[in-house]
Amino acid sequence: MVLYDSATLGGSCSGSSSSSSSSKPPPLQQRQQTQQDIDGLLAGAGYRVRSSELRKVAQRLERLETAMVNSPADLSQLASDTIHYNPSDLASWVDSLLSEFIQPPTCPSEFIMDPETNQTVVSDAWTTAEPHMPQVHQNISYEQQSLNNQLTVDNQLTVVTAMEEDSGIRLVHMLMTCAECVQRGDFSLATSCLEDMQGLLTRVNTVCGIGKVAGHFIDALSRRIFQGIGGGSINGGSAYENEILYHHFYEACPYLKFAHFTANQAILEAFDGHDCVHVVDFNLMHGLQWPALIQALALRPGGPPLLRLTGIGPPSPDGRDSLREIGLRLAELARSVNVRFAFRGVAASRLEDVKPWMLQVNPKESVAVNSIMQLHRLLGSDLNRNSPIETVLSWIRSLNPKIMTVVEQEANHNQPGFLDRFTEALHYYSTMFDSLEACTVQPNKALAEIYIQREIANVVSCEGSARVERHEPLCKWRTRLSGAGFRPLHLGSNAYKQASMLLTLFSAEGYSVEENDGCLTLGWHSRPLIAASAWQAVSDGTVDFPA
Amino acid sequence: RVVPLNTWVLISNFKLAYNLQRRPDGTFNRDLSEFLDRRVPANINPVDGVFSFDHVDGATGLLNRVYQPSSLNEAQWGMVDLEKPLSTTEIVPVIVFFHGGSFTHSSANSAIYDTFCRRLVSLCKAVVVSVNYRRSPEHRYPCAYDDGWAALKWVKSRTWLQSGKDSNVHVYLAGDSSGGNIAHHVAVRAAEADVEVLGNILLHPMFGGQKRTESEKRLDGKYFVTLHDRDWYWRAYLPDGEDRDHPACNPFGPRGRSLEGLKFPKSLVVVAGLDLIQDWQLAYVEGLKKSGQEVKLLFLEKATIGFYFLPNNNHFYCLMEEIKNFVNPNC
């Protein structure tokens, strides 16, 4: 490709007219090499860009546009005050402009984590004016993950991260504003916020990072505003669907595996020395938790006990008895390892519909009650009767279980104020989506995302009995369970060590197990996302049998 | 991306640079604009078979740039004979070209337009005269049309641009974006003054109107251009207080006029399918038809604005072929 040369007569190739003619030109070979990489067509338009740098320049242009869109002050004023570099050197020109826009004097993006309290401290500029903003973990973790996964070349990496930073912060800002409007009941302003956010979403990467999470929250807000708070299709998924999504969530990230493992350890220890044991599982799903326990019991010194498993789950509408099917498979496994095993399925749409007599607990057996993310569903209060949580905790206690294993989302998603709940959820699910980036297996990852998306939709767009995802943090459960007559069982440093080890073997870096006063939490970087604890009924001297 | 990466970089760069130059109060940062615009000098020596030289128009003081195919006789390179016609036997079309830039940006010696005109000469076997009309907001309507008319008269009166057995200057008017708009209005003036123009080539010409059309709403902001910037440029070009139904902007609108009965040149109107103002361009085509004028529409469905700046896509070659056939009807 012959470069059209404007500076010299005779048609020799010396590049753009901006190059100095007084200096000695570089050796011919070197010059030709450099020339060969310059995009010939752009050169004809007066711009020198290396072909190899085209993509980078494109990304920086996108970034510049985003920065210009976000720029609060008068754009043209800023433009006038800027020192412009050689416009022909497009890459440098764009970069020099970027440096003007990315750190403008009124940059609103300062968030600091207080290391002691683990709370976000908002910088002074925002304390009075703006609602409390969650720290967006995206920037740090995305970069780290990218380094681990080697997703992109270094140059592109920082560009994409920073691009997410600007639009991400703007999106978070707008989400908070929208939620605040919803709380105030100003739905027309909320609707226009939604439109703005939809527009901003088109300029943001929605495959990962803040764009993806924001997309789900925008959807959830949209549902709430336009479809009301009854839940609708996203929450009414069939039991079969829910099981599939749950299974993929189980595979895509370690939270459920951690829950099962930790609970099984505790149950195993509690059953030590007992010959007749009965596990009551509040949500059987595909029974993923139990093969490991069955095998552990098979291998215990002194031989396995007689194991009864009662699995609670929703009824199957199509005549299938899915509970029984799972039970049969588990029975098959138990038989293969010589564990005497009996299964019973209890079909109930809601946990509060289960009555203790359905479980047919034998007074001679040791009972373990296992609740993986089920107790929070009982926190919706029905003014007509006793709160479901109290009812259920009361009959659990009446069974006098050897152990009750409780795993719950470590989040405060049951606050009465919508904005507080929204803020907390944004924080929580951003972190969870971050952690999900470590998973690359499909369709596990995509379906796991849908699973999480449904939770988000329930937290944000539902109220009353439709809102079942009423997550509460460990400290609140401690109070509640102690008040209901339970005392905590220490999970033990053994459990902690084993959980940590399993994590390093099977999961990406970034996950962290922490010990919290006898309980274990699993989280992403420093943010715990799921908490496992174990409990025992406080003995009051009497033995209570169900009526 | 619907365009090649280097095209995307080029047009996005323009978009962002232009954003910096327009001020919300309607003024324009001309100094910054001139600084950022990439310019190239003329070159009397042929490069790829085309040479160019500038001529200063005495009335406006503006440079018009002439592009010609280089002589087959190498001995004549570097010289222009202003005594002799282009040819005494063949007809050599002379395309009077008005560059785009929404009446505000670019010049005849902007690199992108210099390159484009050179390609026009090579691929369409024509002489091109690129007009450096005065721009808004410093010079509003009707300055651009006045300058275009002056350039047309100048071209028509050059003996060294004559060709064919009838020793005539065989003129076509062409332009992209605002240049297309100028070509139309100059052609009207020419028709009224009985000055012969053989054809109009309008490359996604800049037209508009008060109402918002479907394409404007659908494509606003999607492919480099926004309604917001379109409005700005009209406000900068049209007389103060005027709206977009002014006939300069909307020639077949409520304040427009029919061209029925006028000896108006045949038109080739090129519309890019991803241009938000295409509905206005299509309405223009309809307006010409209703006036009984000859018009050919070239609708390039997947093209964005500026597709012709770089010869890296099919639309470019299709366009050049159409223009070549348009200005060389007997070939």
From TrEMBL, chain A:
Major localisation: nucleus
Name this protein carries in UniProt: DELLA protein
Source organism per UniProt: Gossypium aridum
Region described as Leucine repeat II (LRII): 325-357
Region (PFYRE): 367-458
Lineage, top ranks: Eukaryota, Viridiplantae, Streptophyta, Embryophyta, Tracheophyta
Region spans: SAW: 461-536
Region VHIID, annotated ranges: 246-311
Comment, domains: The DELLA motif is required for its GA-induced degradation.
Subcellular location: Nucleus
From TrEMBL, chain B:
Principal localisation: nucleus
GO molecular function terms listed in the Swiss-Prot or TrEMBL record: gibberellin binding; hydrolase activity
Active site: 177
GO biological process: floral organ morphogenesis; fruit morphogenesis; gibberellic acid mediated signaling pathway; positive regulation of gibberellic acid mediated signaling pathway; raffinose family oligosaccharide biosynthetic process
A GO cellular component annotation in the UniProt record: cytoplasm
Keywords: Gibberellin signaling pathway, Hydrolase, Nucleus, Receptor
Pfam family, one: Abhydrolase_3
Localization: Nucleus
Coiled coil: none
Record-linked InterPro entries: AB_hydrolase_3, AB_hydrolase_fold, Carboxylest/Gibb_receptor, Lipase_GDXG_HIS_AS, Lipase_GDXG_put_SER_AS
Hydrolase among keywords: yes
UniProt cross-references to Gene3D superfamilies, sorted A to Z: alpha/beta hydrolase
Positions of the Alpha/beta hydrolase fold-3 domain: 95-308
Keyword Hydrolase: yes
Family under the similarity heading: Belongs to the 'GDXG' lipolytic enzyme family.
Protein name per UniProt: Alpha/beta hydrolase fold-3 domain-containing protein
